[in-house]
Amino acid sequence: MIKPYATVAAGYTVYSDVEFMNFPAGEAHFKIGSAANGQTPSHIIISGTDANDYMRAGLWIDYAHQHGHKVSAVIPYLPAARADRGEPFGAKVYANMINALEADRVICFDPHSPVITTLVENLTIIDPAEPLAKWLQLFGQCYDGIIAPDAGAVDRATKAGKAFGLPVYKAGKKRDFETGKLTGFHCEELPEGGRYLVVDDICDGGGTFRGLAAATGLAKENLDLWVSHGVFSGAAGELNEHYGRIFTTDSHPGHSNPEVNASILPIASILPDYL
How many angstroms separate the CA atoms of 157 and 169, rounded? Predict the structure, then answer.
């Protein structure tokens, strides 16, 4: 899914007047609408992992450059960040595709792995802690602590804890890498009667977060979940049985899974401070 944006004479950012299409032979292309004559290409948001979207984005960026404009590629969910080692080296393949866009700047949101951030050129990283804190305050959400669901989430949970001014509690699990099965969920002792926010970057099928919720022993009214990227595959809908509120962004098409009752922070609402 892609959305190209432009600025108009009054200085407003608008959805760019283009219509993406394919030639009969299959090649990607787009048609320029009449309103585009008064628009200056500014940035394009690429949500998800579809290689066809990256092809269309590359065409739009080429169009912008031919007209003498600089343009940013906003890729909030950096694809294959979890494939940051081994064979094939998916993170490198996707990074090469992103670099081939020749965007003047690439903007991402809370990347999963530091490996892919070293591979993508002209990269700006948006840390989620401050946008998260501001957004949840609008919801009137108040917590007594932040929970990091595993060792990989401790750093981002710690940043969220500082943004909220709250203590951080660490949890953990064991994974059988042969089968992918998760066991041994545990969490530091939590003060009784408190409300807590679990903070992590990606929710796929939700197994980690269901296991964590059970390990805390908390009622769903005392436990909320924030994930920067809601893939929400498989049994993710069962998270509603364990969490009172689920929060994510629209960085990945999975955020709209109707089985997951998630509140969505639009990435576009965060961008003005970074473009």
Answer: 9
Backbone angles phi, psi at 45, to 5 degrees: -100, 125
Asked whether 230 and 258 are in contact (CB, 8 A), the reply is no
What residues contact residue 62 under an 8 Å CB cut-off, 6+ apart?
A: 102
Tell me the C-alpha distance between 62 and 104, whole Å.
11
C-alpha 268, offset from chain centre: 12
* Paired tokens of 194: 């408190």
- Helix count (H) and strand count (E) of the chain? 6, 15
Tell me the two tokens of residue 242: 């364990």
Q: Do 61 and 27 meet the contact criterion of CB atoms below 8 Å apart?
A: no
| Rounded Cα–Cα distance for residues 54 and 248 (Å) | 23
Q: What is the CA radius of gyration of the chain?
A: 20
Note the pLDDT tens digit of each residue in 206-255: 999 999 999 999 999 999 999 999 999 999 999 999 999 999 999 999 99
Element (H, E) at 161: helix 154-164
* Nearest C-alpha neighbor of 116 from the set 79, 146, 150, 81: 81
Helical pair 129-138 and 154-164, crossing angle rounded to 10 deg: 50
Q: Assess contact for 93 and 120: CB atoms under 8 A.
A: no
* Residues found in the chain: 275
- Residues 82-137 have pLDDT tens digits of 999 889 999 999 999 999 999 999 999 999 999 999 999 999 999 999 999 988 88
Sign of CA dihedral 129, 132, 136, 141: negative
Q: How far apart are CA 9 and CA 173, in angstroms?
A: 54
